[in-house]
Description:
Blueprint: H1 3-13, H2 27-32, E1 54-60, H3 78-86, E2 88-90, E3 93-94, H4 99-108, H5 137-143, E4 148-154, E5 173-177, E6 188-189, E7 192-193, E8 196-197, E9 200-201, H6 208-222, E10 229-234, H7 246-249, H8 257-283, E11 289-295, H9 317-320, E12 324-327, E13 338-339, E14 343-344, H10 348-356, H11 372-375, E15 386-392, E16 395-402, E17 405-412, H12 420-423, E18 425-430, H13 446-461, H14 491-495
Parallel strand pairs: 1-10, 1-11, 2-13, 3-14, 4-5, 4-10
Antiparallel strand pairs: 2-12, 5-8, 6-7, 8-9, 11-12, 15-16, 16-17, 17-18
Amino acid sequence: MSRINRRAFLGFLGGGAAACALPRTAWAEREAAGTPVPRPARDKPLRRARGKPNIVLIVADDLGWNNVGYHGGAARTPNIDRLAREGVELDRFHSAPLCSPTRAGLMTGRHPLRFGIGCSVITPWRKHGIPAEERILPEVLARAGYRRRGCVGKWHLGHSHVRYHPLSRGFTHFYGCYNGALDYFTRRREGQTDWHRGHRPARETGYTTHLISKEAAAFVRSSPADEPFFLYVPYTAPHSPLQAPEKYLAMYGELPEKPRAYAAMVTAMDEGIGGILSALDAKGVADDTFVLFFSDNGAGIGGDNKPLRGGKASVFEGGVRVPAVARWPNGGVRGGGKVACPMGFIDVLPTLMRIAGVADHGGRPLDGVDVLDAMARKSAGPERPWYSYVGYGTKDQLAVTEGEWKLIYVGPRILKTPDPRTGGAVHLFRIREDPNETTDLADKHPEVVRRLLAKVKTYRSWHGKTCLLDETGTRKGFQAPKDWTLPGTPAEALEGGR
């Protein structure tokens, strides 16, 4: 980017938005060989005389781009809006197109495609989860001295054996469900109640969103004042089934049935987020708590991704560009406005490593990078290709964004397709000037198409196998275990242990 164009770009962003410089890096060379890029040398652990900050990571489930107040949506979200006002909007934050892949990527800092969770969600009858060889976020923060590490909400990263349980993967506290799409009042899935405190079934009444919110706020209040904590709050809302208490439905009587229920669910979640923020305020730790909120993918039933194209389970922007905000006053993530640098779910772990002062996470090479300086508007974000993938059956959806261009491929498995340009649908957009993907330029720029198709083929080849879910069970004949008690759970854990 020339000096003149950079100034024009900064002026266009306005409102304190951060610019993204485009310096050449070693990414292209490393990426061509399928090798993850290490964190830039400048991203050194921070030092703070008063110790490490608390970390609160809140993830909504299927929240659409236009379903938050600060984007002008119909749902009332004063507490999420407060985070955007006091912190920063992450205007180009991207998740994976579906639930489990996003959770797997944020937990590992790696593309979930690398370890078999890139294709789809982990449904109740699947037998896989994050492999033990992958070092995940709570394990990394344990190395940094975070003794209290709570997971409150929807896990969705493996439930066929106790080895996949959150308490087996570095968390010290778990309250919530293993699966998605539970009934919000009974918490039943596949005929059994999926609600747990630690390993034990939890027989509780109430609305799921309220239970998650209450537990998360209690975790904050009960944490010792003299040591940092990590709290991960993966809400089930506003994922289907579309259910909400009448109090919230009454707020949106003017909307059609499904958008009405969806908006009610969003507002109930926002109210709970307000409770978490109030607990931080009351404890006097809000200024030194890093709070990150984002959605795991775009909206599905009842939600609104406009003006973006597509939605959940799609690699168009409506499926992967999600509402996201961050706040950390003492760390410089404050003041409102937008951060326009591309970043996303695989950057969460390396960024939290920086915040927690961890130089080496002890695991496999990371794909994500530390974006804390970009969040704090101290530097431009890194230049790199950004990939998205989802695969059902025998089809691939792949996307790569590089610089001004975004290419999308939808069709048969790309590695088995001699010429993807004729074997599937190929789209090309100038994504900076056309973020809503309205003008397809594939026919006008065949050289760009060829170059970016080669990149997505390389990316797809990282998988090795077609997809773990192809090998780990089917719905036919499946019966959920009683109370969703995981095989291998020690008897003492069920009798009163963790």
